[in-house]
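A favour, since you know our structure tokens better than I do. It will help me judge whether the discrete encoding reads sensibly. The space below this message is yours for that.
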Amino acid sequence: MNGQELVSSSSRQPRIASDANHFILTFENNRFASELFGQFDQNLKLLEERLGIDARARGNSVVITGDVSATNQARRTLDYLYDKLQKGGNVERSDVEGAIRMAVAADDQLTLPTMEKKAKLTMAQISTRKKTIIARTPTQDAYMRALERSEMVFGVGPAGTGKTYLAVAHACQLLERGAVEKIILSRPAVEAGERLGFLPGDMKDKVDPYLRPLYDALYDMMPADKVERAITAGVIEIAPLAFMRGRTLANAVVILDEAQNTTAMQMKMFLTRLGDNGRMIITGDPSQVDLPRGIKSGLVEALDLLTGVEGITIVRFKDVDVVRHPLVARIVRAYDATYAVPAVGGGGEADPQI
């Protein structure tokens, strides 16, 4: 099949030659085209695997053949990634995976505010001085938008979906903007029954093992020396859940991680700490409750009680949103199939307040 070449009016944009199921996409910058296709065309091979198309590089052009819908998804994916390169970004395998997910979701007509069906992809971003995070799945996109818009956000779902990482990234962004004065990180220490006194060291030393995932995200978002200075100055505070009682958390973004391991009373206590110009982000996985048998998870109860409450947004991640190794998603699905967890607080990826 031979297509008629259509030359873009802008030299920055790819040129397309096309017919029904076949088109040639040409990129003006040879270096960017090489990075876009990947070493040994690995990014094109990923497109082929995920979309069921044929994508063959010819110099700075790529010939794409396949189903009309799939070839359009491939075009939007490559357009987005090429634009990212033009803006000084890099293209990793995870970026390609994310762009493909978003392109497919656009065709599935998910009503996300950051998409235009059949048009170019635009994904939500979180930016700090050290790093920029771009949504890799439609639910991450919805979550990141919810963090911008809502004072209280629940991010619930399986491991590896980016709930905690994105929460910490958003908190760092708000701190750098001057929108809040401090970040408070909290997590229930279920293994020690909230009785941390027997552990050696000061309070930070006692709770560090439980808060390591939050620290890892902090060091990704901010230079290590700034993190240490902020902790010393109290701008970043480590606060075990049991020590939050009686406080009013104003001018702060407060993150409660592993919230499935709170009791109902702990969750109520935590949620009612919100003060003026405060933000709360609650993350957890209802399928991984470590509380003693017979004690109801405070997260599960909160999702039931607070769905539909004005000012609260609940975003629900699924196994398809796992952005770690592809094997993680398959592991999550296998466990979910064996140990099914009843749905709480409605279905879908996100409640309608987004």
